[in-house]
Amino acid sequence: WYQRRVREFLTFQHYFKQINLRMEPPLLDENEQSLFANPAADPRKMRRIIAEDPEWSLATVPRLIDICVKHIVGNFADNPLLDELKPKHKEKVLESLATDLPLRITAPLVSDEGYWKRCCKSRWNVCDTDQYGDSWKRMFFERNMENLIENFVPESTDITEIAETLELSKDFIKRLRIRQLLPQIKDVTVALTPEEEVSDQGSDTGTDDTLDHFDFGVIIHKLDNLEELSVTYGVRNCGMNFEWSLFEFTQKDCFLLAKAIKSCAHLQILRLQRCQIEDEKARLIISNLLQHTGLKILDLSHNKVGDRTGRAAGKLLSVNKSLEQLHLSDNQIKAEGASAIAFALKKNNTLKVLNLKLNRISDEGGKNICHALLKNTTLISVDLSSNGLGEQMAAALAEVLSRNTSLRHITISCNKLGVAGGRVLQEGLEENKVLETFDLRLTEISQQSEHSIMNVVKGNKEQLQTAS
User: What element of type H or E holds 325?
Assistant: First the structure.
């Protein structure tokens, strides 16, 4: 019995030694010993908290300043707070502001270009600040006003929105390019006769009642910085709803526009393209520009004006002392109208660019313009392409090339000058040292003459560049 007890004791003693060896802690470094001494510091032994909000994080607690900025942004429409903030906090608020806030809040308060850049890109796919003086704020206000005017329907749209936006935008608008103007909505409640329902003759001939458009007099007198106005009376993307009346520039439209332009003394550029303008309306517009002291560019291209407008333009060149560019391309001006313009050019000393392409001035009108260029010393560019000019015009132009010292650019393409006309121009250009571009495409001159002329022009251009 004694021996059995001794063996059991030794056996238990051996087991206890093994257990003690297993429970002894291994050798640890200082960091591991600190964790072993403070189990709460070991993130592996901390309690895990799983939040209901998947974005909630125990490791990230927002700073008080960030909470304040978030509150300011969220309540900016009701309590705009910006100028009172420090610059670094102000920058954070501007980065987070919504782009659809009312203009009555952001227009007078926000001048940061970064915010207005976000506003522009959120509304339009194509944004080029080069056309807006590198200003995003100016781009936003100009394009926003253009959009309001282009979608305004007379007698249907409330003018209040335009008036309110104008008060906020007037200091930033320097140019308006209106690509369409919507007419009044027709009254469809009037019953049509069977003949009117079947026939669309009225639409084809434009004999329907004329429809008036937006009155620019409502806004122009408040735009003290407006320098350019470009307007097209018509409807874009009308599709199957096309009617001639949608593209009509009515007498009332003309009267209201002329009155508005006359009151805008700071206007420098006026463009009325593709408006179906005829002589009577063009003369009314020009008559209101005779005493305009700031106008530099007048563009009535792609209309239906003729010789009467040519005479009115001649009077404008004789009276107005500020006009630098006159564009009358793609119209119906003939020799009489061109002769009136030529007569005015003899005394005019401000016009630099004259564009009469795609008209019908013929040799008679072309020769009169050339005779005027012998005395005119300010005109730099002349475009007489596609005007039915011939050899007689070439002879007159050759004399101009040999004597005129101001012309830098001439375009007479798409005219039948002929081989003889080319030789005359070649001879006249021999003494010319100032002409930089001479467009003679599709004029039926010989290749030899064209090659010689182009060599002279190229030499002139290189010499002028070297001298400058």
Answer: strand 325-327
Q: What is the dihedral of CA 399, 401, 405, 408, to 10 degrees?
A: 150
Beta strands in 175-247 (DSSP E): 175-178, 228-231
Of 336, 296, 334, the residue nearest 316 (C-alpha): 296
Using one digit for the tens of pLDDT, what is the confidence trace for 316-374? 999 999 999 999 999 999 999 999 999 999 999 999 999 999 999 999 999 999 999 99
Contacts for 138 with CB less than 8 Å, ≥ 6 apart: 132, 172, 173, 174
pLDDT above 90: residue 181 = yes
Is 39 or 262 the better-scoring residue by pLDDT?
262
Using CA atoms, how far residue 65 sits from 32, 69, 83, 178, in Å, is 38, 6, 16, 46
Residue found by looking up tokens 């793609």 in the block: 330
* Cβ atoms of residues 389 and 363 within 8 Å: yes
- Answer yes or no: are the C-beta atoms of 312 and 344 closer than 8 Å: no
Strand boundaries in 203-308, DSSP class E: 228-231, 269-272, 297-299
- 59 Cβ neighbours under 8 A, 6+ residues apart: none
Please give the residue that has the higher pLDDT: either 210 or 349.
349
**296 torsion bin: left (phi>0), alpha (psi -120 to 50), beta (else):** alpha
DSSP string of 302-321, one letter each residue: SS---HHHHHHHHHHHHH-S
In this structure, the number of other CB atoms found within 10 A of the CB of residue 151 comes to 12
- Cα–Cα dist 119/105, whole Å: 14
- pLDDT at 306 > cutoff 50: yes
Q: Can you tell me the distance from the alpha carbon of 150 to that of 234, in angstroms, rounded to the nearest whole number?
A: 10
Beta strands in 398-458 (DSSP E): 409-411, 437-439
Kindly state the helix (H) or strand (E) to which residue 463 belongs, with its residue range.
Answer: helix 447-467
Q: List, in order, residues 6 or more apart from 280 with CB less than 8 Å away.
A: 251, 308
CA distance 365 to 333: 10
User: What is the predicted pLDDT for the residue at 372?
Assistant: 95
Task: Identify the helix (H) or strand (E) that includes residue 426.
Answer: helix 418-428
Q: How far apart are the first and last CA of the chain?
A: 128
Q: Supply the pTM of this predicted model.
A: 0.81
